[in-house]
Amino acid sequence: MLPILSAKETDSIKRRLLERANTDYSEQQKIVDAVLEDVRKTGDRALFSYIARFDGFEASADNLMVTEEETDEAFGAVDPVLLEVMKEAAANIEEFHNHQKRENWFIEKGGKYLGQLYLPVEYAGVYVPGGKAAYPSSVLMNIIPAKCAGVTNIFVATPAQGGKVNPATIAAAKIAGAHKIYKMGGAQAIAAFAYGTESVPRVDKITGPGNIFVALAKKSVYGQAGIDMIAGPSEVLVIADDSANERFIAADFLSQAEHDELAACMLVTVSRKKAEAVRAEIIRQAELLPKKDIVLKSLENYGTIIVAETLDEAVETANRIAPEHLEICTEDPEALLPGIRNAGSIFLGEYSPEPLGDYFAGTNHVLPTNGTARFSSPLNVDDFQKKSSVIYYSREEFEKVFRKVAAFAQAEGLDAHARSAAIRFEG
Asked: Which positions in this protein are listed as binding NAD(+) (predicted)?
């Protein structure tokens, strides 16, 4: 467990991490395809049938949505301390994401102008896992960027075991600004959002985590609706030098390892002594955790310690792996920041651990995994907006260029395009 490797082995480590996404889900895909087609064709009838089958309550158009009475009950059932923490976290998340807003812009030259409008999607659907566990932090992270983007209809879908939604989920959704909460889960909820039913409006964008059936359903309906991303197993990579505290690093390792057996925890350090100290501390702390079995399996599968010769090599190793979470625990962490090219979220210094971003600081914890930080970003306001181009030419300005437009069109064999430009100046 936790081999100590050299940075020269980075590519083989990366290949092994990417293999986590190569599981054959063909059987699950068949089930998802059947559910999607059923809901697409028969709407509420199929949706209610699947809810009865998987969530154990007889859904109808009258009881599919969480009511005001249920909302009041939920706020009364949640620990007041947690409610206040959620409200403060929500304020931090909103402040951060408000800074991501963009302004429309225009270029004016004489009798013409070009520009771009930023327009929010009209309907957003947020999926929230249900069951025994509740993840109010994910509720906040998905809804608040949509609200900051100006989305006017934000709907939540979450499984309701026996017709009851987890109170923390309801409270978080209302604190964040959701407009409706639907008691539906699984692939059938994604189908209802993507295609619409008699009781559920069709949405423009679907976000939020879920099990493999939810993930496959989101992937399958892309095109009918936009999606955020297909999230893979969680991962953290820590860059450390001799100044780093091995107890802190070990704790951060284990905070990721407890997610599941596919979580990847990596340390890149310039000190073999530090590598060995961290490994010993990880093994010691793992024995104290309630989820010890999951943690140890995760570390056995994907726990990795790499010794680099220099901090520059450590940074380059991190860039090649492109981790979801990147912690920089060095004497001067900000000095390494300009060299970072690929990471979902970057945590600077020993007192900025990954859970701070998960729950409270305000940055989004919906992050690209499995190396996709090379080309994608955390969930943000842009995910809930689209851009429209604006073009205006006066008659005089278009007369200067219409022959050029027509010539370009004719060169591509599109005579009707050419005529569209030239007809305005015939005679």
From this structure: 127, 188, 211
